[in-house]
Write a structure and sequence with these properties.
Elements: H1 2-41, E1 46-49, H2 61-76, E2 82-83, H3 86-95, H4 106-116, E3 120-128, E4 132-141, E5 147-156, H5 159-166
Parallel strand pairs: 1-2, 1-3
Antiparallel strand pairs: 3-4, 4-5
Helix pairs in contact: 1-2, 2-5
């Protein structure tokens, strides 16, 4: 009887965790579609997705995860625009001594556009609420820094989301230090 109870609890926990994950995936897919429509509407041909930050412009692992998910979602469907690979974006930023945070400055965004051919940036904020996380995203042109699109998504916060949100983006993987190729040991094994 005790084994049946434990098995039932485990199944219910797994179902709940899966539903929360699907909720975030669905919300990020919807966000991608809204942004893609706005990018197409304004005739942009090449975009780059920058790590999402909190309201104080601090990067977290959740911000990187969201940026990566949006990038993959944009590429996953046939679009009228291309997406700059995030690794290439990091190397361009490093080569020209720019930072992801600095791209909010119109002059820096213009420089990135000139160096990479990107004509729009996608960036956004992560706002943790009581039991949810809100994500706001903007599409900004590199030539004028005009906001040509915006959308938001909201999903339930879970243990994984909280863990990613609480971990600052590691320096080894940050846009500011894109030239470092050494692996970072995060946990000793054995």
């Amino acid at each position: 009887m005790k084994l049946l109870f434990i098995a039932t609890v485990c199944v219910l926990y797994c179902i709940n965790a899966s539903a929360q994950s699907e909720n975030m995936d669905k919300e990020l897919s919807t966000l991608t579609e809204k942004l893609a429509g706005q990018i197409k509407e304004h005739g942009r041909k090449k975009v780059a997705v920058i790590d999402f930050t909190d309201l104080q412009s601090n990067s977290s692992e959740l911000g990187r995860f969201i940026a990566e998910e949006l990038t993959v979602n944009f590429v996953g469907e046939k679009r009228d625009f291309s997406v700059l690979d995030r690794a290439n974006l990091k190397s361009i930023l490093a080569e020209h001594s720019l930072t992801a945070k600095g791209l909010i400055n119109p002059e820096n965004a213009k420089k990135l556009g000139e160096f990479s051919g990107v004509d729009a940036l996608i960036l956004g904020n992560i706002i943790p609420l009581s039991q949810t996380v809100e994500v706001t995203a903007k599409v900004i042109t590199t030539d004028t820094a005009e906001i040509i699109g915006a959308a938001r998504a909201r999903f339930k916060s879970d243990e994984t989301t909280e863990k990613l949100l609480s971990h600052a983006a590691s320096e080894n993987n940050a846009s500011e230090d894109a030239t470092s190729a050494e692996p970072m040991v995060t946990k000793a094994i054995g």
